[in-house]
Amino acid sequence: MAFSPTDSRLYGDLFSTTEMAAIFSDESAVQRMLQVEAALARVQARLGIIPPEAGARINTAAQTFQPDMDALAASTARVGFPVIELVRQLRAAAGPQAADYVHYGATTQDIMDTARVLQIRQALTELGAMLKDCIRALADLAGAHTATLMVARTPVSYTHL
After folding, report:
1. What angle do CA 67, 6, 77 make, to 5 degrees?
2. Alpha-helix runs per DSSP H in 5-155
3. Which helix or strand (DSSP H or E) is residue 149 part of?
4. What is the rounded average pLDDT of the residues 65-83?
5. Predicted confidence band at 161 (pLDDT cuts at 50, 70, 90)?
6. What count of other Cβ atoms lies within 10 Å of the Cβ of residue 90?
7. Please, which residues bridge with residue 73 across strands?
8. Once rounded to an integer, what is the mean pLDDT over residues 143-157?
9. What are phi and psi of 93, to 5 degrees?
10. CATH topology of domain 5-144
11. Are the C-beta atoms of residues 61 and 93 closer than 8 Å to each other?
């Protein structure tokens, strides 16, 4: 049984697209969280809040390591969100010199909300492209049917001659 229509093998394609499913997938959400952690570390290093070497290590680790999705799922089942386990994994990937500076000064909600905004921004770009395609198709139909007769209508019925 599907949790939502978009998860359904039967109905999923009626409510979403392959592109949107990818944008809002678990893997995409985790990658966006890692992007946020990397950006946070880069900015904090640039501002002198954390050591530059730590910022560089965190940035590299966030871009290169592959999170253990099974461990993230298990942690999420226990605590309700994946960030605690993701931070634990990122600290291990960044190494002992940078571990204390991963997620420095941030909250779980900061990371999750910003990651979601990045997903939404990507989705809006995709929707914009889809709308342009739709407008082009409608314009083509309008052009193809400029001479097609159509029944006149009032607000509630066809008009009679």
Report:
1. 40
2. 12-15, 18-23, 26-46, 52-64, 69-79, 83-94, 108-144
3. none
4. 97
5. low
6. 24
7. none
8. 85
9. -70, -35
10. Fumarase C; Chain B, domain 1 (1.10.275)
11. yes
60: Cα separation from own chain's centroid? 21
How far from 120 is each of 29, 112, 124, 125, CA to CA, in Å? 11, 12, 6, 9
**What is residue 6's three-state secondary structure?**
helix
pLDDT of residue 155: 78
Residue 36 C-alpha from the chain's centroid: 12
Beta bridge partners of 158: 153
Q: Is residue 1's pLDDT more than 60?
A: no
Contacts for 46 with CB less than 8 Å, ≥ 6 apart: 52, 55
Percent of the chain whose predicted confidence (pLDDT) is above 70: 95
Burial of 122 (0-12, 13-18, 19+ CB in 10 A): middle
C-alpha dihedral (30, 92, 46, 52), degrees to nearest 10? -160
Question: Which pLDDT score is estimated for 11?
Answer: 79
Q: Which of 32, 37, 25, 54 is nearest to 103 (CA)?
A: 37
* SS3 state of residue 116: helix
Extents of the domains making up the chain: 5-144
